[in-house]
Amino acid sequence: MLESLPVFPHGLPVSHSFVAFIDESGDDGLGNLKVPGSNGGQSHFLVISATVFRATNSVSAVGWRDGILAKLPEKKVRQLHFKDLNHGQRLMAAQSLARLPIRVTSVLAAKRPIPPGMYAEKNQLYFYMTRYLVERL
Question: Residue ranges of the domains in the chain?
Fold first, then answer.
């Protein structure tokens, strides 16, 4: 039995479906930015990124991650965080990712020029940037 393709409201079939993995780096706090050389404080930037690939590659994505992890010193976790890698490991991971059938898009907020009170509610900047990112997928 053939499975029918999803259809747009205008009646044309959708030829591809995509998966997006979204993650952030930094925090959305604006009140106490880090001072170089001191402990504590919030990051100067908030970055939210999406890695997008065809849904037909969903099963392969686990192998992509495992292939990169196999080139790193053995760990008990199966997560890949760049913050935990040294420069050479980051370079290897970036080169491996560059060869994959994926696309990455990011939105970045430099927090220093944001006027006080502009994003006063908790997660307001995070939600605004996430919406901005999703609009670009």
Answer: 18-135
At a CB cut-off of 8 Å and minimum separation 6, what does 25 contact? 43, 45, 46, 47, 49
Query: Whole-model pTM?
Result: 0.77
For 11-21, letters b (16+ CB in 10 Å) and e give eeeeeeeeeee
Q: Judge contact between 52 and 19, C-beta under 8 A.
A: yes
Q: How far apart are CA 46 and CA 128, in angstroms?
A: 11
| pLDDT tens, residue by residue, 1-51 | 445 555 566 666 667 789 999 999 988 888 888 888 888 888 899 999 999
With a CB cutoff of 8 Å and minimum separation 6, the contacts of 50 are 20, 21, 22, 104, 105, 106, 133, 134, 137
